[in-house]
Hints:
Two copies of one chain form a homodimer.
Chain A: H1 19-26, E1 33-34, H2 52-62, H3 77-88, H4 93-96, E2 100-106, H5 110-122, E3 128-132, H6 136-145, E4 149-153, E5 156-157, E6 162-163, H7 166-171, E7 177-180, H8 190-202, E8 206-211, H9 221-224, H10 226-233, E9 238-243, H11 245-248, E10 255-261, H12 265-282, H13 289-298, H14 301-331, H15 339-343, E11 348-350, H16 355-365, E12 367-368, E13 374-376, H17 385-398
GO molecular function (chains A, B): L-aspartate:2-oxoglutarate aminotransferase activity; pyridoxal phosphate binding
EC number (chains A, B): 2.6.1.1
Subcellular location (chains A, B): Cytoplasm
Amino acid sequence: xxxxxxxxxxxxxxxxxxxxxxxxxxxxxxxxxxxxxxxxxxxxxxxxxxxxxxxxxxxxxxxxxxxxxxxxxxxxxxxxxxxxxxxxxxxxxxxxxxxxxxxxxxxxxxxxxxxxxxxxxxxxxxxxxxxxxxxxxxxxxxxxxxxxxxxxxxxxxxxxxxxxxxxxxxxxxxxxxxxxxxxxxxxxxxxxxxxxxxxxxxxxxxxxxxxxxxxxxxxxxxxxxxxxxxxxxxxxxxxxxxxxxxxxxxxxxxxxxxxxxxxxxxxxxxxxxxxxxxxxxxxxxxxxxxxxxxxxxxxxxxxxxxxxxxxxxxxxxxxxxxxxxxxxxxxxxxxxxxxxxxxxxxxxxxxxxxxxxxxxxxxxxxxxxxxxxxxxxxxxxxxxxxxxxxxxxxxxxxxxxxx
Amino acid sequence: xxxxxxxxxxxxxxxxxxxxxxxxxxxxxxxxxxxxxxxxxxxxxxxxxxxxxxxxxxxxxxxxxxxxxxxxxxxxxxxxxxxxxxxxxxxxxxxxxxxxxxxxxxxxxxxxxxxxxxxxxxxxxxxxxxxxxxxxxxxxxxxxxxxxxxxxxxxxxxxxxxxxxxxxxxxxxxxxxxxxxxxxxxxxxxxxxxxxxxxxxxxxxxxxxxxxxxxxxxxxxxxxxxxxxxxxxxxxxxxxxxxxxxxxxxxxxxxxxxxxxxxxxxxxxxxxxxxxxxxxxxxxxxxxxxxxxxxxxxxxxxxxxxxxxxxxxxxxxxxxxxxxxxxxxxxxxxxxxxxxxxxxxxxxxxxxxxxxxxxxxxxxxxxxxxxxxxxxxxxxxxxxxxxxxxxxxxxxxxxxxxx
Lengths: 403, 403
């Protein structure tokens, strides 16, 4: 066939994600361990699922009253409402004043895709986006593809081994966009908060929060997102990607909400109407299963309580693992203080190792973790904790004095 | 509060879709009928669902062996494979030669969103898109938002009351993109096909097929998409949006595939790799439920057979409704030939009324249908067929001589 291909100029795209996981999978060593799974693992190394979810899946499948019609473009309204109440608390100022709203989004990136499209059109002056380094790969790509300049930042101070929100003040130019994850881990004082807020306002920085694991930090749903209320009370307008897949264990049904907080209801309706237009072009009608499971649980007090308890159990287990790791390192006499392990909240925290130590673990011990040593602590269990802590000890000893 | 809103310049977006449905809903007349639902209706006016689907939903919810982990970026591989086999037939040339592939997409617009993004980047010369008028609203918006010039066309010849594929030849400028639905309804002769193909090649027109109801035209899955094989055999490269929600009755789980046919495997892999990159930014991991239900049915011969039979039953019912409408109009002595009703395949077909007649039905009879008189015949049932046919008769008589 002599026809020239239409696709002649299309090169093979570079793979962006999963190189660490790929190397892990190709490793034939039986001792190999992967410490960077995105989702929480059970003690048996399976993805964690809230006990209430399988029950709800069954109940939904057996319900003859459900209809399987298309959802409207803005998605499942009861899902959006229940999720916003979860995020802000039922009686929050923005809910009472009717100036918070949300659009049902698809997948882990959906809310960022939608929000970025909006910002590209309606905030032409904001073309630089700062993204926390741990999320640069999935979210950065979204903004990059649309022509934004993407820079990364980290709250983690690898010298002081603690979180530091001052990076926000130092790095951000005027009119930039900031994608912010769990800022409550930074433990700011009242006056530090005030300085931060003033600086953000002064620089006209647009905040795009990323709440993908509400409740997984402290085990307390309200406490985890309390800082959002503070921003609301200070008159900030912002976007927030609220993802609920991780906290229910419905990873296969990536579902979320692009939350919009505006100064008043009129502005909110304008923003939502533009978002709806974009959603229509993106996927028209979002799939329902994830939203249906979550809504059924959130709207039933008994099931909601069961879910909260399962989440609490997960967080207690994370704390226990961290305590054990710290204790084992202490018993091994590993140089350094390991308090930073238990000082950090949530499933994903920094081990506080340097690059040489990480390399040592990967190459000599077949323990796979990212270069910044931010690991998923739920990947550590009774079967592998001794091997992991002994290996960390070896890594630290072998690289002593190399800094 | 004196702060100026970030969203100050954002106007309220115009609503694009559903104005007919909205007017219908606001109509308080008890006789009102809506003839333009997107999905097939049962004789009781409920959305049609294949009998095999509820069973499969239950089976999936009860299966303890399933894992709920994230799907990879390219989606569920077994779903893509099973769907491609359905589209092309197991032993088709493109499958054997390994030059067809697909990406699991989300919602009814997902495949067009993904395909349009690709074409925007990799076919910079193709900036005009022709879309069949019945699908202009959902798909046109996708291309329009990305800066393409969108024009509409229709195979329906409202004078001759038949389908005419020659519009493709007349209207299309060089290097344009054509979104094509069910071309097999045009009943082209071998020589007309040959002329059409030569002209498309000569004008370097890129084809983007829309297969959203395979099997619903003739009741025969292979026959409905046979024309795709003809394009393949003639050395065409193309995209195809394959949507399976309508043919299974899983409207709430909008799921599909962006199908790519390339001249060889190497080209295919390049295109798929670029699509994967775009998918990552769009939704990262697609939701699984719709794909899981469909794959479980397609990969089980007994269930597949049950699904095919349910589809056949649906198509037979559509034909029966059309026959009845034609017969009732004949008995009423309605002027004109109504053969075009039964000459057209599928649930959605043209009634062949002019604008005055449509207006008459909407305003005087509370029967809601689009201006081009393309209706969903499954909205007609034993309860409303007499009222509908009598009203059509009145409409035709009352506007006689107005043309």
